[in-house]
Amino acid sequence: MTPKLYHVTTALLLGVGLARAALPFQVDDVRVSLPGRPMVDPEFNDVQHRVAYWDYAGARLNISVAEIDPRTGLLKSETGRDFAVAEDVSPSFKQGRWWSHNGPEWGRDHNGWAIYFTKEDAQGNRQMWRAVEKDGRYLPEQLTKKPGGHCGALISHSVSAVDTRMLFYINLDVPEQDTVAWAWASAPDDFHPLPDWRGSHSIARVVGDHHIGYAPRDKAGVTQVVLLDTRTGQRQIITDEPGDKFDTYGFRAPEFGGELLMMANIDRERLAIYRDANKDGSPWQKIAELRLPPDSPFKYIYSCEPIEPETGVNGVSYFSLNATKNKGTNRGETGRAEKDGSIWVFGLGKVTANRLARRVDEGAVSGVATTRYESESYVGTDEVFIYYERKDPETGRGELRRCRTGIGASGNSPAAIKP
């Protein structure tokens, strides 16, 4: 089956030479997974040009890795099963409740890359596992050993770090005590629970080598973004405004010389950007709010993440996200239950008038309403690509799709202009 290719303009936007030509943007959105075999909750590795994902084999849930062509953003093989990582891993839902929270995640330290995931041990306890590649094979090993249930890791990426930091849920078997903790991969059962985590609206995100950002509720019941120094245990409350805060994430902004900024999705309506302007322990200054276009029928944003958070892309901080017309009702909402979703890229930049809000999925052209969610980015040779999961509007089956963004990976990015 030949995948459909959708176009927004008649101008052709080629991958080769993209960085040197600020051409009009055109939607280029194709299916990359095989029909009837979705690639669920994918995570991308820009350095090794790979994607790790949940791979259903009948009733069994495995983890596979596919290699990516960095020029086209497409899979190198037809099946996308270039490496087998682990079998019979824990699914998102089981026994009518959240079970693993998320799929495989990449982690990195000075020893190289690894894949982290949730899998049950022989006693049925959810545990954190890791798979390291050796001689062309991924070798899985169990990390956490304590009973009580652990799952849903977010993992640090730092080539200079001596160890990898993991963030994951603990005490899952006692619902009134479950919380999030961090631990080093070398000492996975030495938990450090995050202060005041319970009731948070945003799972913590690893920031640099030493800090974690998350959004617990304050005494007034309002979520505020907190920056935790894992070396000292000291916390700094960096926001002081109303609104529920989701998708907290730290990134280094090229617009400010690589300075660490924080982002937060406020009320699922706007992406706020914060900067430590005073550097005196006071709340950070909100320097920008990125929003969907006012004439867009989509009003609420989910799954917001910085693209290339350590460097930005070509002098600009970009963000991937999906948007819906209706607001979800639970804290872990991703938009997967919405019947009409859309995939977007936001750009910060130095010039407010040129800030980017660009829809990149085929629905911008076809007008077809269907579920679109879980946007993820991958930086190829010439361009930034966005991937997302979609329900095929004809069959209802899940599929993974790849979008061009018009954002060049080097030179003068054409996306640093209005869409």
List the helices and strands and how they pair.
Elements: E1 29-31, E2 39-45, E3 50-57, E4 60-67, E5 83-86, E6 93-94, E7 97-98, E8 105-109, E9 112-120, E10 126-134, E11 137-142, E12 151-155, E13 165-170, E14 179-184, E15 192-193, E16 205-207, E17 211-214, E18 226-229, E19 235-237, E20 245-253, E21 259-266, E22 270-275, E23 285-290, E24 300-307, E25 318-324, E26 341-347, E27 356-359, H1 363-366, E28 372-379, E29 383-391, E30 398-408
Antiparallel strand pairs: 1-30, 2-3, 3-4, 4-5, 6-7, 8-9, 9-10, 10-11, 12-13, 13-14, 14-15, 16-17, 17-18, 18-19, 20-21, 21-22, 22-23, 24-25, 25-26, 26-27, 28-29, 29-30
Q: What's the assembly state of these chains?
A: single chain
Question: What name does the CATH topology carry?
Answer: Methylamine Dehydrogenase, Chain H
Strand count, sense and closure of the main sheet? 4 strands, antiparallel
Q: Quick check: average pLDDT? A: 88
Question: Rough shape?
Answer: globular
Briefly, what CATH class?
Mainly Beta
Query: Reading side by side through the largest sheet, how are the strands ordered?
Result: 1-30-29-28
Could you say what the CATH architecture is?
7 Propeller
Helix fraction by DSSP (H/I, runs of at least 4): under 10%
